[in-house]
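Record minuted for everyone:
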Amino acid sequence: MNVNSLFIVVSLTVFLSACTNIEHSQPKNVGQLSIDVKNNTDFAYKAFQLNLYQDHKLTTSPISTFADGTTIQEGDIMDFTFTKEEIDFNKKVDIEVVMYVDNTLKKKVVTNKVEITNIKQERDLTYKITGHSSEDIRLIIMY
């Protein structure tokens, strides 16, 4: 084997090794709970806040918005990820979504609470928010 052939074989091996998908060998979201919330309402919001309650106490309440300041439109999905340090995976969790209408974060719409009774690690949950007005907003699990 000459030097050019050896160079081509080594280069091809390095290139193909870099293109392999390592994610398949690692479990997704180890030690995390991922909750996606899809806006299926007829109107846009500036931010979503996901409130998680355990033992009737607010445990965590992160806010998600687009970095460029655009509104969350119908069909947009906001992703929230929680670790076992933030919530106890052995207890039930009640969640609700607070949707902020403007940049001041003062005008808001709150959904109903939904109970998660069996949290398992490495679990992804997807919810959608439905409604045609602020009076009929509902948080529903998507299967």
In short: The first strand starts at residue 32 and ends at 41.
